Amino acid sequence: xxxxxxxxxxxxxxxxxxxxxxxxxxxxxxxxxxxxxxxxxxxxxxxxxxxxxxxxxxxxxxxxxxxxxxxxxxxxxxxxxxxxxxxxxxxxxxxxxxxxxxxxxxxxxxxxxxxxxxxxxxxxxxxxxxxxxxxxxxxxxxxxxxxxxxxxxxxxxxxxxxxxxxxxxxxxxxxxxxxxxxxxxxxxxxxxxxxxxxxxxxxxxxxxxxxxxxxxxxxxxxxxxxxxxxxxxxxxxxxxxxxxxxxxxxxxxxxxxxxxxxxxxxxxxxxxxxxxxxxxxxxxxxxxxxxxxxxxxxxxxxxxxxxxxxxxxxxxxxxxxxxxxxxxxxxxxxxxxxxxxxxxxxxxxxxxxxxxxxxxxxxxxxxxxxxxxxxxxxxxxxxxxxxxxxxxxxxxxxxxxxxxxxxxxxxxxxxxxxxxxxxxxxxxxxxxxxxxxxxxxxxxxxxxxxxxxxxxxxxxxxxxxxxxxxxxxxxxxxxxxxxxxxxxxxxxxxxxxxxxxxxxxxxxxxxxxxxxxxxxxxxxxxxxxxxxxxxxxxxxxxxxxxxxxxxxxxxxxxxxxxxxxxxxxxxxxxxxxxxx
Length: 580
Prior knowledge:
Layout: E1 2-5, E2 8-11, H1 12-26, H2 31-43, E3 46-49, E4 71-76, E5 86-92, E6 98-100, E7 133-140, E8 155-156, H3 158-167, E9 175-180, H4 183-187, H5 199-202, E10 211-212, H6 214-222, E11 227-230, H7 242-250, E12 255-258, E13 272-276, E14 285-287, E15 289-294, H8 298-307, E16 311-313, E17 339-346, E18 351-359, E19 365-367, H9 384-397, E20 416-423, E21 441-442, H10 444-454, E22 462-466, H11 469-473, H12 485-488, E23 497-498, H13 500-508, E24 513-516, H14 526-538, E25 542-545, E26 558-563, E27 571-579
Helix pairs in contact: 6-7, 13-14
C-alpha cells in the first residue's frame, strides 16, 4: 500500500518490515534504553484539535431566526464578592463544532409517524459511548469546494467513497468517515467576513458547502459505518437536501460531527478520532469537542477497543431535575442553575429545539488555572476573610500567582491520558458530625501509601479520585439533597477532597490533571477549597470535576475528556469516557 505525503510517496510494506526489525532489535536493548525507547515512542503521539473556536464574534451559531446566539457571561469576577471567576453560558447545541444524533430527524417510535423509528430515542444522553470514536477515514473531497451555483451544495456521492476504498481499504464497522473539503478552514472567520461560512450560503450569495447526498448515507450504511464527520457547517446539503440526507443516515442510528476543522492534519487512515459532547437529557444534538490522536501505538489500541465497544461513560446526565450545579450554602450564593429553553417547535418530530442557560461548571466540566487566579498585573480586592486565607496560604505554600490560562488554552493531552485511579472511599464517614460542614481530606500520606501499593505516579497520568459520592447521591429532585445541599449546610458529611499539599505533591510527580467523581475538588469547607484551587492554579494544573461510574473503569483504562472550546471561559462543560 502506498499513500502520498507532503514529502512524496511512502511504501507501507517497506515501513512494516522496518518496524518489525526495529521491534526485534529493541528486545536486545538493556532496560534503561527500553525505558528511553518507550518515552520516545510516547513522544510521537500527536493530539490534533478538530474543533472550531466558540466566541461571540465568530459565526458559531446557525444564523437564521429564531436560533439564539451564543453568549459567554462573566457573571462574577475575582474580587470582594467572589474569589473565583464564574461564567454563565447561553449555548445552543448547534454551536460551533457539534454532534447530531438520530432524534434530530427520526421521530419517537410511539408517535407512529412516517419517520418514526427505534433510533428516535437515541438522544445525546443515551448514545453508547463506543460510538463517539473510531478509526478516522478521511475522504478527500477538496475537488468539490466552491464547485456549485450560489446557495447550492456540491454533493459527495458514493463514487467518492469508492475512490477512497480503492486507494486505501474497504470501510467497515468502527470507522469514522470524515469528509474533508477544507471548507471550515477557509471560511470560519470573525464576522463580518465570517458571514461566508453559513449566512451567505443561506442567502444564496455564495456556493454551498460540500456535503453527502442521501444515497451516500445509504451506501455507508451498507458498510456498517455508524459515525461520520464533515468540515462543512452542516451535514445537510443546501438548499433542499438537508433533511433527506439527515434522515437517510440518522435512521440507521448514525451520529456525526458537523463543523469539524483541521482534517488535513490527519492521515487518511490510522488515527483515532473522538467527539465528546455534554450529556444533555433528551438532546437531539449537542455542542461538542472533537479531536484526533495520531502517531505511535496509542491510536491502534484505542481503535481496537472502540470496535469491541470497550468504552465506559463517566459523565452523568444534565437535566433540570438533577443536581448538576452548586446551590451554595447561603441565600444568594448559588451558581446559575441548568435551564433548558425551548425556542422552535418541530411538528414532524413533536419536539422543541432548545438551547441551554447554565453555569460553566454544570455536570462534568473542566476548571482552569484562571478559575481561581487573576491575570498578571490585576489588582485584586478580596473580602477581609479571603485576605486572611490568602496570607495563611502563602505563608505555607508560597505565592498564589496569576494566570490567564482559559479553556481554549488547555492542551488536549493535558486532559487525556492513562488513568490512575486513587480509591479514597475509605475516607467516607471519617469526620465528626459536630465538625460539619467538613470534607475528609485526601492527604500526601494517602497518596504515598497509594504509591507503595500501586507504584509511583507517572508524568502525564490522569489522577482520578474515586469517592463514590455521585454514584451514591446523584438522584432526581426531590431526592437530590445528598449531592450538594446537605453536605454544604452541615446536614451530612462532605465528599473527600484533596488539600493544597496533595495537589502540590502530585504536581511534583509530573501530574497536570486531577479528576474526581465528587461535585468538585474543593470540598465543602470554603477556606480549604479555595486553597486547593489556588494550589492547582499556581502549579498550572487543571481539574475535571463531576464524574461518575468510576468504579466501572479498569486499572489500565485510557481516560479521555475534552471541554467545549470556548474562548476566554474559565471553566467549561464536556464529556469524559474511559477506553479499556
